[in-house]
Each structure stands twice: as structure tokens, then as C-alpha cells.
Write a structure and sequence with these properties.
It is a single chain. The chain is mainly alpha-helical. The protein has one domain. Helix content is 77%, strand content 0%. It has nine helices and no strands. Helix 1 packs antiparallel against helix 6, helix 3 packs antiparallel against helix 8 and helix 4 packs across helix 9. 39% of the residues are buried. Keywords: Membrane, Transmembrane, Transmembrane helix. This is GAP family protein. It comes from Mycobacterium yunnanensis. Pfam families: SfLAP (PF11139).
Length: 216
């Protein structure tokens, strides 16, 4: 299960709408508390959304202790969708991606608004929402019980939130010395993320598709 969750979490971690807001909040008037508030909201958002889909699979599948019969078909459909989306991202990778204009407001954001914004971004970003749904269903259909589901959820959230946590925590320790490196990181992610995400999606889709076919 953990091997299946890593690619899902990496898609979230490498998404520009995950990393760029986490860097922009560090340019606010109170960067340390604002960054930490954004990180807290991001982690809570990822955990809550993923847990919802764990519980959905629990209700539909009849419990967390036994894999439901339809789990393989869900993986086949999800794997095919991920491969198709990965191919699309690869074919359109040449398009330039820029930060949405509404992100400019992050320069004046407060810690409370940063936490709420992070929660909203988890739900509003289709890519993040889909990955959390896929992770929740993957965790809930493994038949590992409540303890195993909790372990899987914690592991997924830790990896998915890592690219937001690293700059925020590093800035909390090092301060303004990281301003230029973080800006370069944001610019690089805007230029290169499409190819990276495309490759991860295709590999992930093939793995999920294989596991679904193997389980029939």
C-alpha cells in the first residue's frame, strides 16, 4: 500500500499550486507565523479530504478489514485515467504555466487567512482532490484494518505535504537568507513541473492499472 501511495503523494507534492503558495506566503508581512499557519491548514486539509474517501470505501466496501470485490475494477479505471491524463500533460508540456493572478494577494495575507486558504486550495485544486480521493480509496480497500488505514493516511499526508513543509520550516529557521533560493525554486517549478508531473502520472497509472488487473 505504501508503494502505491508514494506516486499519488508525489503528484500533490510536485504540483505548482502546492509549492508556489507555500513560497509566496513567506513574502507576507509576517512570514514565519503565516507560513506555519499555511502549512498547518495544508496538512489538515489533505488529511481530512483523504480520510473522507477512506470512510467512503469503508461504507461501500463493508469495512476496512477485507478488500471489497470491486477494488480491482476501481484501480483499473483509475489507472487508465491517470495514464490518459499523464499523456495529455506530456503532450501539452510546452505551454508556459504562470502563477494565477489571485496569488498576488498572498503578499498581504494574514496567518488566519493563510490557514483557511490552504484548506480551500486542497479542495479547489482538481489534481490534489483527485489524488487524495485515489489515496483514500487505495487505503480503504487494502483490508488492513483501522490501524493500517491510519498508518497509510499519515504516510500519504507526510509525503504529499513535504514540499510545502520544507520551505516553510527552513524559513522558520533561516529567515530572509532563503528568499532568493525560494524565488528561484518557484520559477523553476513553473517552468518544469508539467514534464515531471506527466512522467509521474504515467508511471503511477501503469502501476495502479497493473495492480487492478493482477487482483482480478
Amino acid at each position: 500500500m505504501l508503494a502505491e501511495l508514494i506516486p499519488l503523494a508525489l503528484v500533490v507534492a510536485l504540483s505548482p499550486l502546492s509549492i508556489i503558495p507555500g513560497v509566496l506566503v513567506l513574502h507576507s508581512p509576517r512570514p514565519r507565523p503565516t507560513g506555519l499557519a499555511f502549512l498547518a491548514g495544508w496538512i489538515v486539509g489533505l488529511a481530512l479530504v483523504t480520510q473522507v474517501f477512506v470512510e467512503v470505501s469503508n461504507l461501500v466496501g463493508g469495512g476496512l478489514d477485507k478488500p471489497p470485490s470491486w477494488a480491482s475494477w476501481v484501480r483499473i479505471v483509475a489507472g487508465g485515467a491517470l495514464v490518459a491524463f499523464g499523456v495529455y500533460k506530456w503532450l501539452t508540456r510546452g505551454r508556459s504555466d504562470h502563477s494565477p493572478k489571485w496569488m498576488t494577494s498572498f503578499a498581504k495575507i494574514t496567518p488566519r487567512k493563510a490557514a483557511v486558504t490552504a484548506l480551500v486550495l486542497v479542495v479547489a485544486n482538481p489534481k490534489v482532490l483527485f489524488m487524495c480521493a485515489a489515496a483514500g480509496l487505495a487505503i480503504g480497500t487494502e483490508g488492513l484494518g483501522r490501524r493500517g488505514a491510519t498508518l497509510g493516511l499519515s504516510f500519504y499526508v507526510a509525503v504529499a505535504a513535504s514540499t510545502v513543509a520544507l520551505p516553510v520550516l527552513a524559513y522558520a529557521v533561516s529567515g530572509d537568507r532563503l528568499h532568493e533560493p525560494l524565488t528561484r525554486l518557484k520559477d523553476w517549478m513553473e517552468a518544469q513541473h508539467a514534464a515531471l508531473v506527466a512522467g509521474i502520472l504515467i508511471v503511477l497509472g501503469l502501476l495502479v492499472l497493473y495492480k487492478g488487473l493482477h487482483g482480478l
